[in-house]
Design brief:
Helix content is 39%, strand content 11%. It is α/β, with parallel strands linked by helices. The longest helix has 16 residues, at 20-35.
Length: 221
């Protein structure tokens, strides 16, 4: 696996790329992409970083692993390629934005527009085998994304972290709560949302309220 990542992140993450676990992970991913159909495309594995520079970073949303259906994943958590049907979790995200901010439900499920405004859409695991959810978990990605969150926590301030569901909340232990703002709730998946753990969280207006208080430009959700 060749690490194709934006220059602003190379400076921050280079020490991780040199560690033995990451070299083993890179070899695992390379082998998987040769022998299996995997997502996202190889040149989009680090797309979340390439579309959201370290300097511009304002918000972090943490997902679990990429969508494993054909044509869905493109390197941003919860996001799908242009023209692809919206998965259930994304539908619930958009419904919450609709009621929270009173803006129309969007046609496109491609969240690049958020990334370019400083939202890091980070999956805990950056790759997956087709039709096999969680197939690349516990191979080193989690250690890498823990390091990413730690670096952001150490080197930035006033970042808003959105931790949705138990998996994301575990990452919260890496964040300095005195320097950053953390919002938690249930996962937007139908299972969680239909039990009342998602709708009404108003996270999107809360993010913008916080950014406004810190005199940081708000996100156009």
């Amino acid at each position: 696996m060749k690490v194709e990542i934006a220059e602003s992140w190379v400076k921050v993450l280079q020490p991780e790329f040199e560690k033995p676990y990451f070299k083993q992970l890179a070899q695992f991913v390379k082998d998987e992409y040769i022998t299996n159909n995997c997502f996202p495309k190889g040149n989009q594995i680090f797309e979340a970083f390439n579309l959201c520079s370290f300097e511009d970073l304002k918000v972090v949303i943490i997902g679990q692993d990429p969508y494993h259906g054909i044509g869905q994943a493109h390197g941003l958590c919860f996001s799908v390629n242009e023209g692809v049907a919206h998965p259930p979790s994304l539908i619930n995200i958009f419904k919450e934005i609709e009621t929270d901010l009173n803006i129309p439900y969007p046609k496109s499920g491609n969240l690049e527009r958020w990334a370019k405004q400083g939202v890091l859409l980070l999956n805990a695991t950056l790759t997956v085998r087709a039709h096999n959810a969680g197939s690349h978990q516990k191979k080193g990605w989690e250690e890498f994304t823990d390091a990413v969150i730690e670096k952001i926590s150490e080197e930035k301030k006033n970042v808003v972290f959105l931790l949705w569901g138990g998996f994301a909340k575990k990452k919260g232990s890496k964040i300095d709560k005195n320097k950053h703002h953390i919002l938690t709730c249930g996962h937007p998946s139908p299972l969680s949302a239909n039990r009342g753990y998602w709708f009404g969280n108003r996270h999107f207006s809360k993010v913008n309220d916080y950014l406004e208080r810190k005199k940081i430009e708000k996100i156009k959700w």
